[in-house]
Design brief:
single chain; 476 residues; alpha/beta; UDP-N-acetylmuramoyl-L-alanine:D-glutamate ligase; Rossmann fold; 2 domains; 6-stranded parallel sheet; 19 strands; 36% helix; 26% strand; elongated
Length: 476
């Protein structure tokens, strides 16, 4: 999981599917029409965003991926809107125009944040054979420029049986995974994909199996794998998480949503986040955990929403299940974390030390340091560094143990082990707002004070030190 969040690689992902415009007319209602018993909406604002496969694209861009878009649209004004909305992002579009086809546009009239009515303008019939050939030809040209392919099927006719099979075959020839958010009941058309992401209801319809127990869940996963000849089988279970069948073993990754306001677009977020994660790692279980976190963020928002890596990491840190290990970072990782915190206008506090045998003096010092800002980052001397400073008999506890104990403290947000004699290089990476040292540095040079905005000295608790603790243990 951490490999996904901290990886600096920027994946390149191709999305193929049904594009549409989500059109919103926002207004207020304070009267009923005299012509008919309907509301009169006073329109005050109008917005347009990418919909359908566009939701997947938006989520991938929000996560930081490079994105390509391959689809078929009509030769109409709505297609121009689609192209404009894609061009306004960093995505690269490969749009095939088909004369006579209506590009999908879903218009919603909204009053006081509630949807009053929706009207659609679209073609639902399959794209032409000519368009199919053009999509396939374009895919042959660009497939090797992408790490992975996502198919977002909204049942509007782009992903026909023929085209879907041709996409999967060319992807396999080029060693590219294909992940599909399916539509309808004919899952055989996705045969050969890496896996599908149906929700529970969709899986029940496709397999004919009512999912109401662990046994029926296993049966449905097996049937999906059989029907679509999948590498592995996945079913999203809403508030119960995501289930996967891999190597004949069923694993359910539980949901991590704290509050659910709106599930609109959650399926698109799951598809995008799984694709993003699997372009970083082949660990499906880490990818599922990542997707669960992403969905947990999105369902806490109103309307179709996107999610960022920062939001996922922040969200994970707030969960009760957040592990102690999450707060232990490498020097490389802490630079990225600090950059994110600065963007959020967090006041970063930094201090460092050996913290060999943790005692009241340490805890009091760290607690007082944390009170100076929002985030406390502790630089921890490695074992080799401690030996150079304290002698061959130190440290008593190795740096892994010391880091674990420190990161368990409520006042400590992150711990970073460093091997140098001084933390100067680490402080350069963190760029703290406040640098904290003990009061015994009064009148002395504090390493890193030229980098931090402010340096604060904090008194120690009298009579409390690691040396005195060791002496007491030894009976001196």
């Amino acid at each position: 999981m951490e490999r996904i969040l901290q990886n600096e690689k920027k994946p390149n992902i191709l999305v193929i599917g049904d594009l549409m415009v989500d059109h919103y007319l926002w207004g207020t209602c304070d009267r009923i029409s005299p012509e008919a018993p309907v509301q009169i909406i006073d329109i005050q604002n109008e917005t347009k965003v990418l919909g359908g496969a566009g939701n997947v694209i938006s989520n991938l861009l929000s996560l930081g991926a490079d994105v390509g878009v391959l689809s078929v649209v009509g030769d109409d004004s709505v297609a121009e809107e689609v192209k404009y909305l894609i061009d306004a992002t960093d995505a690269k579009s490969f749009l095939i125009l088909q004369k006579g086809r209506k590009t999908s546009k879903k218009s919603r009239i909204m009053a006081s944040k509630s949807q009053v009515v929706r009207y659609d303008h679209e073609s639902k019939n399959n794209i032409s054979f000519e368009s199919t050939d053009k999509v396939y030809a374009k895919l042959q040209q660009i497939v090797n420029g992408y790490d992975l392919i996502l198919l977002s099927d909204y049942g509007k006719g782009v992903l026909t049986n023929d085209l879907t099979q041709r996409i999967i075959k060319i992807a396999k020839l080029n060693n590219k995974k294909v992940i599909v958010d399916p539509k309808g009941t004919n899952y055989a058309k996705y045969s050969g994909a890496y896996f599908l992401t149906p929700n529970k209801k969709e899986a029940e319809v496709a397999t004919g199996i009512k999912i109401d127990s662990s046994d029926s869940l296993r049966d449905a996963l097996k049937e999906l794998q059989k029907i679509a000849n999948l590498e592995m089988s996945v079913i999203t279970l809403s508030e119960d998480g995501i289930a996967v069948l891999k190597d004949k073993e069923v694993t359910v990754k539980p949901t991590v949503a704290k509050e659910v306001f709106d599930v609109t677009g959650a399926g698109d977020t799951v598809l995008a986040s799984l694709g993003y994660a699997l372009s970083m790692t082949d660990d499906i279980y880490a990818a599922l955990e990542f997707a669960n976190l992403a969905a947990g963020v999105v369902v806490g928002k109103l309307g179709s929403a996107t999610v960022t890596l920062d939001e996922i990491e922040d969200y994970k840190a707030t969960l009760h299940k957040s592990s102690i290990d999450l707060h232990i970072k490498t020097v490389k990782e802490i630079k990225k974390v600090a950059k994110r915190l600065r963007k959020q206008n967090k006041k970063i506090i930094f201090t460092n030390g050996c913290f060999d045998i943790l005692h009241k003096g340490h805890v009091s010092y760290l607690n007082n340091a944390k009170a100076l800002g929002d985030i406390l980052i502790v630089g921890l001397n490695s074992d080799d560094s401690v030996r150079r400073l304290k002698g061959e008999n130190r440290p008593i506890n190795n740096h892994d143990d010391r880091a674990y104990i420190l990161s368990a403290l409520e006042c400590v947000d992150y711990v970073v082990i460093f091997d140098e004699d001084t933390p100067y290089e680490l402080i350069q990476r963190v760029k703290p707002d406040v640098l904290v040292k003990g009061a015994d540095y009064e009148g002395k040079e504090v390493i890193g004070s030229d980098i931090a905005k402010e340096t604060v000295l904090i008194d120690f608790v009298e009579g409390k030190s690691t040396t005195s603790t060791i002496e007491k243990i030894l009976g001196k």
